Write the structure tokens for this entry.
Amino acid sequence: MEGRTYRFAEGNVDYPFGFGLSYSTFSYSDLRLSTTVITRDTPLRGSFTLNNTGNFDAEEVCQIYLEYPNSAFGIKRQLVGFKRMAVKKQEAKVVNFEILPEQLLVCDPEGNFILHQGEYKIAIGGCSPCDEGLIKGAPHPITALFKIE
């Protein structure tokens, strides 16, 4: 699968996965996680603030990506959740999310789904986190670290 999807991408792309245009502009802030350490039996809960900083009412698809420890089997990042939010101009909304441990499983070369222990990075924004999205006008993603023990 290497080189076939955004999950394994290392180089530059014209448009990052999930990138879209809007009549308005958005910003993300105040990422809060319920904990910084979870186990294979506990979900990760959190929230963030989505701000419509533009002059038009609009919708934004908030996307939650994970970067795996040590690039598990070559996977750089993976989309684990998204939410479409309607936000009026100059309004801010708090968005809650939950990531279940089974959403963190990766398939090893033998076809087994496993959960890697280690430090994960969560990134939330309007597209897959990369410089190309920022260059084209995507909002800066917000990030945090957490561990699975």
User: Anything to note?
Assistant: The chain has a mean pLDDT of 84. The longest strand covers residues 77-87. The chain has one domain: 29-148.
